[in-house]
Amino acid sequence: MTEPGAEPPASPPTSSEPAARRSHLVDLTPLRSSPAFARLWIGEAVAGIGGQMTVVAVMLQIYDFTGSTTAVSGVALFALVPMVVFGLYGGMLADAFDRRAVALVSAIVAWGSTATIALLAWTGLESVWLLYVLTMLNTVASTVITTTRSAIYPRLLPRELLPAAAAMHGIAMGAMVTVGPALAGVLVATVGFGPTYTVDVVLFVTAFLGIATLPRILPEGEVQRPGLESLRYGLAFLRRAPNIRAGFLVDIIAMTFGQPRVLFPAVGAVVLGGGAVTAGVLTASTAVGAMVCGLLSGRLGAVRWQGRAIARAVQVYGLCIAGFAVVLLVATLLGGNADEDFGGASIAAIAVAALFLAGSGAADNVSAVFRSTMLQTAVPDNMRGRLQGVFTVVVTGGPRLGDLYVGALALVAAAWFPPLLGGIVIVVLAGVVLRVTRSFREYDGLDPKP
Fold this sequence. Notes:
Blueprint: H1 29-33, H2 35-66, H3 69-94, H4 99-123, H5 128-156, H6 162-190, H7 193-203, H8 205-212, H9 228-239, H10 242-257, H11 264-271, H12 275-295, H13 306-333, H14 347-378, H15 384-410, H16 417-436, H17 438-441
Helix pairs in contact: 2-3, 2-5, 2-6, 2-7, 2-8, 3-5, 3-15, 4-5, 4-7, 4-8, 5-15, 6-12, 6-14, 10-13, 10-14, 10-15, 10-16, 11-12, 12-14, 13-14, 13-16
Pfam families: MFS_3
GO molecular function: transmembrane transporter activity
Domain Major facilitator superfamily (MFS) profile: 199-450
C-alpha cells in the first residue's frame, strides 16, 4: 500500500536499448508492467466512447430543436476559446499540484456536466444555450484531464514503454471516434436522448476508478503557482527546446494543409456520390486507419531516431492526402461512370479514397506516438503539464486552420485542388524542417533532449 502523501512506487529500471520485438502486434507490456496505467487507460477508453456518444447526441439534439446546421456548429465554436485557455491553464495546474487531485476534480466536473445534460433530456427542457454552456464545461474539464493524464503516464511507466503506451492511446482514440458516434446514432434513433446520455454517465465511472486509485503524484523539481509567470516560464523553456518545437511545427503543417474533412459533404453530394453515407465513410476512415496502426504498432518501441520518424510519418501523411486528391481529380474527369446500382455512387473511387484517408490516419498515429514520447521523456517532469498544454493548443487550433485553408481555397478551385496542393506542401515543408533542424534530425530516443 502507498502511504498518504507518498510518491508513487519507483518505475521499473529502464534498459539501455529499446525493447526488441519480433511481433508487429501492439505491445501490451505497459498493461502488465503497471496496474495503475492499465486502470487509467481502460478508464480513458471506455469513458471516451461515452464522451463521443454525448458529443454526437448533443449535435443531433440541437438540430432537433432548431433545424439549423449553424446552431449545431455553435457547439464547437462556443467551446473553442475556453478549450485553448484551459488547455494552457490545465497544464499549469498539473505542474503545480498533485496531478491525481487535478484529474479527479476535473473528472467530477465533466461527469456532473454530462449528468446535467442527461437530466435536461429526461425532463424535456429544450434549451440550446444550456446545452452550449454544459458542453463547453464538459469540454474544458476533459481538456484538463487529458493534459494532466499525459503528465502522469511517465511517472507510471519506464521510458522504454512510453512509445507502446502512446500507441495504445491511439487505439483508444480510434475506438472512441468510431464506436462512440455509431452507438449515439443507434441509441438516439431507438431509445431517445435521455437514455443515450445516461449511458455516458454510467460509462464515465470507469474513468473515476482509473484516477481515484492512483497514488499522489506531485511534480518533481521547482514548482510555480499557476499564472502568467508560470506560462511565460513554460514558453521560455519551449524557446530553448528545438526538438519539441520542431515536433509541434510539423504537426501544425500537417493539420493546416492536410485536413480535407470540410470537403466530405460536397464530395459525397457531387464528386463521388453517395451523399451522407459517403461523407460518413470518409470521416470514419481516418480513425480506422489510426486504430489499425495502433494494433500493429509492436515494433515502434524499437525505433531510436524519433525525430526522423515524426518527419517521415508526416510526409507519408501528406502523400496520402495528395493521393486522396488524385482520386477526386480522376473521378471528376471520369464523371458519369458511377454505379447506378448504388444510387449513383462510385463505389471503387470511394473505396480507394477511404484507403488513402486510412493511410493518413495511420501515418498521423505514428507521428503522434513519437511526439508524445518526446514530450514525456525529453521534457522535465515539472514542465510536462505546461508543454502538453501548449500542444493542446496546437492540436486544437491546427485542424481549425486547416478547415479555413480548405474552405477558402475550395471557393475558387475544384474540390481536388486544396488537398493536392496541401499534400505537396506538407511533404516539402516537413522535409525542410528535418533538414534545417539538425538536433531534430539526430534526436535519439536513448538520449532524449528537448
